[in-house]
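Run: sequence + coenzyme A -> complex structure.
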Amino acid sequence: MSYETLLYEDRAGVAYVTVNRPQKLNALNQKAVQELTDCFGQIEASSEVGGVILTGAGEKAFVAGADINELAALTPAGARETALGGQALMNEIENLGKPVIAAINGFALGGGCELAMACTLRIASENARFGQPEVKLGIIPGYAGTQRLPRLVGKGRALEMILSGEPISAQEAWRIGLVNQVVALPDLIPTAEKAVQKILANSPIAVRYALEAVNHGVEMAKNDGEQLEANLFGLCCATEDMKEGTRAFLEKRPAQFSGK
Ligand code: COA
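>> structure
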């Protein structure tokens, strides 16, 4: 896959997607949103790719937000379409059915923080900074930051970040649960690789159903979420992976999952 704003590579079942506009701190212009949407659509359909590492080019930024040059020229109707398009991309990433590890190598502001939050896990380098600075520009987050941030860190801390617009450090992001791990910059990609490999060693079907149970269940009333969980738990028991996983445990050997 070849793109203007992204680098794409797949190695041994892992897709490496890099937002590649370092001279603009990897700000997401419309082209980048379109290309990410296309790229994740292809990853979803691929039987070769089991997981994704998403990062930004250079050592300064993951993604420093939506492209403010484009934002400045938006009409109300265009802005609505832009928000809906960005939200659709975030939903595609969140519900990919495969793990997406955000390797956050610098600024993750505005749309960059929203992009990171749509990922399955977030691993940050020590120099990363997180924020939703939109109110400083006279707008509010538009790629579902007002929805995902309170779900991840609680309403009080989300409101503090969204209303102040002030960034927080990687350590603070870890302390409030916005990121899973903070590591030195040179360790970022190797740590993300370990995280994705740990998940890829498990049954891909079970991983997909677990993602579905958590992502959809968290939006439902508890009883409905439990029904969803029970249904997916039942479906797992129809798979070869379940037979292999339980048999391997009983035979004291590592499981070899086929994803069937
Ligand atoms: N959209 C468009 N361009 C952006 C951008 C964005 N979100 N973020 C950074 N850039 C561009 C800058 O305009 C600059 O371009 P130039 O060299 O052509 O002037 C280049 O990226 C480098 O950024 P610069 O501001 O010079 O780097 P810095 O180290 O001084 O500051 C930031 C880094 C992240 C603090 C600063 O760039 C910033 O505040 N960016 C906007 C963040 C934001 O509000 N995001 C939410 C948008 S909704």
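>> summary
The chain has a mean pLDDT of 98. The pocket of coenzyme A is lined by residues 24-25, 27, 64-69, 107, 109-111, 133-134, 137 (CB under 6 Å).
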